[in-house]
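FIELD: query
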Amino acid sequence: MNGIDCATRLTTTSVQALRQAGILAVGRYLGYQRGWAKSLTPDEAKAIHAAGLSIFLIWESAPTNKSYFTYAKGISDAAAAISEAEYLGAPDGVAIYFTVDYDAPAADMLAIKDYFQGVKDGLGGKYLMGVYGPYLVMKSVVADRYFQTYAWSGGQTEPNHIYQYQNDTSLAGIAVDRDYVNDDAGLWGPNELYQIDDVKESEFEMDFAVVYFTANDYSIAKAIADLHGGCAMFCRNGSAAVHPDAKKAGKIYTVGGPALGWPNEVYLSGDKALDTVNAVAQAYVAGKLA
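FIELD: result
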């Protein structure tokens, strides 16, 4: 899908203009509680979601030279990013992209890898660890999600979830960078405005529901629904979003496509339709479909 990232706070009007321009995902920075002017605000997040756009979250302080990157700094950045993401209501399981914003040489990679180990340990699995940077960083750092910039990459690419292909341009009157964004980039989708960690099972309106990605996943999704008395089924039609009524279920079985990142989710997916079927079969044998 077409996306942008920007340091400009968006309004309902500017978000609608981006949507009209074909943008479906927006990268915005954490840091609202710290008073950072470039940061995503709670009202802005709601405006973006209300327009049907997804958000990918970015943490960036001053990662522009080797001295920034230490294990301890990774730990502290992760803690700060968690605090900011929770304040906005970002659900567990979405990605936060931590940046390397310079032409980092091979000699800096050990320090950068130490930093990202600190980030990973600091996040503790609550959010997916994303890394932003040029080709060499993509190649060197082990992360959950990758956001590569063409800058400093010399035309080389590594497998990535977001690819930034143009910097410092204008779209709908906003200064932006242009990106290609995959559905599995750890996006905060438009129907996932708030955490549901503290909802008790007794407060849900349904015991079970099945969310499936496309019509290709219908048959196996229907089989899971039949195991639970013909429970409700929701199709995402190839989108990262899901109908909000799905949140009314105590347990969600997600079949195909990207994970929802909800704490009550059982995620069953593979790279291809047959892989998804195999994932469901393995879950059944393991008793995870009960």
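FIELD: remark
The chain has a mean pLDDT of 89.
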